[in-house]
Structure formats: structure tokens, C-alpha cells
Amino acid sequence: MKKTVLHKANTRGIANLGWLKSFHSFSFSHYYEPTRMGFGALRVLNDDAVAAGMGFGKHPHDNMEIISIPLAGDLEHRDSMGNVAVIQNGDIQVMSAGTGIYHSEYNKNKDSEVKFLQIWVYPDKKNVTPRYDQITLSVADRENKFEQILSPNPDDAGVWIHQQAWFHLAKFEAGTKQTYNFKKNGNGLYVFVLSGSVLADDQALDTRDGFGVWDTDSVTFTATSDAEFLLMEVPMYE
């Protein structure tokens, strides 16, 4: 029987450090909620806004797949692998932290904030060689359909990670209806609405709501207004 969990936007954890305002869909840093420790292999979904010229100083990660999706502004990335890059809305960035990396992320602009989603997924292989990648996506490829932006396969569309996970972005006009079919049996789907309103089967979702679905093989989405949303299909853990 299909199982679901609903996380309304106003129930997320909040961190306000002045230079950083972050909404946490799952427990993170000083926000701890034992019923919200992640969704299957999806461990972190942070909705971050960083003030002009500010950012996260050099810090370590290991054995985690880290995905950044910029929503507005310019995010400058530097890491111990020698990568220096700026990512913007339309890009997606991925790091396999593996045996360990250091990186920093700063708002490159001095007069406007940068907004991005920070997503962590548990890997299915530990202590891999660290790696970095980024690509630029085509917004046209998600107009009234699901644009694949991440998979387990380096030869497939989007970036890839060490996990049996698939991410899609969708930008639906009001009234658009499409069914998402799971890629792998036993996976769950976590939906995060970036803007607008949609129905996920019969569950109404509004901007910044999160909704998890599992023990099913498909979910039908109907846009009740113009809407943009992110789908994250991941393995489910007990």
C-alpha cells in the first residue's frame, strides 16, 4: 500500500545567521527533529539564501554525494581538487566527497544574494575517489515534462552520483498533467515545489512544500497553477 509523508513549507527548520538564511527540510546543524532525519538515501535538503559577498568558508566532507542547484545569483565554488567555478540558475553541480574533500562556497556578487538548494545523498559506495562535475541545463527541456538532471549512469542525461537515484525538474503550465514512473523498484520519490501549486496524485502541494511517496510505482502530477518542482527518486532505507 502506498505510503506518504507531507512536510509543509512552514514546518521546516530555520537557521538565520544574518549572512545566511536557510530552511531545512530535514534535521541539520542546530535543527534536530527525530522524525525528520531524511527520506531514504536523501539526507539533506536545504533551501539557502546567502547575503552579498558572504558564504561558507573552507570545510570538509566525506562519503556523501552533494548536489547544488542554484535558483538565483552566482555561487562561486572552490575545492581541494583544484576546481574553481561559478554556478548560476540553470546549472547543476555535483561532488562525490568519497575519501574526503574540502570546499568553499561564496556569493560572488557584492550587491545581491544568491539562492540555491543544497542536497546531500548517501552514496552506495564508500571511500570512492572524490570527483566534481557541473553542467548547464536547458529550461526548455522541462516545459510541461520531466527533465532528467541526475542519475546513477555517467552516460545518461544530467550529472551522475554513486547511488541508484534519479532527479528531475519540471516546469508545468496550469492544467498540465503528467505521470512519473519510478525508475527502480523499491525506491521512493520526494517532491519539492519551487513555485506554484501542484497535485501529487490527490495531495495538494504549494510553494516550498515537500512530499514523500513510496511503496508505489508511479505518481501523477497536475499543475493547479503555473508551477516548477523538483523530483528526487532515491532508495528507501528502513
Structural class: mainly beta
Classified in CATH, the superfamily of the largest domain is: Jelly Rolls
Percent helix, as a range, is: under 10%
What is the CATH architecture term of the largest domain?
Sandwich
SSE pattern, N- to C-terminal: EEEEEEEEEEEEEEEEEEEEEE
Number of domains: 2
Question: What is the overall shape?
Answer: globular
Unreliable sequence segments: none
Question: Which oligomeric form is depicted?
Answer: single chain
Strand order of the largest sheet: 1-20-17-22-15-13-14
Number of helical runs?
0
Domain Pirin N-terminal: 13-121
Binding site for Fe cation: 59, 61, 103, 105
InterPro entries: Pirin, Pirin_N_dom, Quercetinase_C, RmlC-like_jellyroll, RmlC_Cupin_sf
Family: Belongs to the pirin family.
Structure description:
GO terms for molecular function: metal ion binding. The chain has 238 residues and is mainly beta. The chain contains no helices and 22 strands. It has two domains: 125 residues, Jelly Rolls (Sandwich); 97 residues, Jelly Rolls (Sandwich). The strands form four sheets. The protein has a seven-stranded mixed beta sheet with strand order 1-20-17-22-15-13-14, with no helix packed on it.
